[in-house]
Design a protein that fits this description.
alpha/beta; seven-stranded mixed β-sheet; 19% strand
Length: 228
Amino acid sequence: MKRRAQPILKYTALNDRLFRYVCACGAGKRDASLEALRAETAALGDIAEMQIGPDQGAFLTILTAAIGARAAIEVGTFTGYSSICIARGLPPGGRLLCLDASREWTDIARRYWARAKVDGKIELRLGPAIDNLKKIQADRRFDLAFIDAHKPEYEDYYELVLPRMRENGLILFDNMLWGGRLGRNAPIRHPNGRAIDQLNRKLARDKRVESVLLSVGDGVRMCRVLGR
């Protein structure tokens, strides 16, 4: 009897050399403002790993522009790299609402927003993200949301952001592969990993959205909001 062939797993594993190639050839033109921001953030030490990669930044800019977004929201701004990339994808008059708990990190972001000349598009609200999401006007709508903050609260952010999204709007979550530690046949004990895994499984079943988990950076989950 002929043995049934196993499905081919179609992917390319990255290493440092190949990732540098991806960034050099696929992350857009060299940008002095973003490169300076990456360098200043790197000087903060291990916390710099919270910053998205250049490939993710280019992806956000192109995606924001491609869907014609005029109103965007970011939960978790850190030092401002992703917010610059989103703001650059917005048209003149477009607005990005940034939510973050840290004045120290967002003071860096403010400087680079001005340097990148996108500060006129950005509104920053400091404080706990859940509280600030609840305070957003009930009739305010967004075309794009990028969520990259406290992982155990991801599902709360999702449920608060989703009703404020327009039909066909996009919600993106960062770090949805949790450093490659998901998919094992073992219990997940860390609260971050548990929260991410639970949300991945929920979004795969959620009939309110159509979603895909992309192996960009540390995993980007992209959800298209369906009609109510």
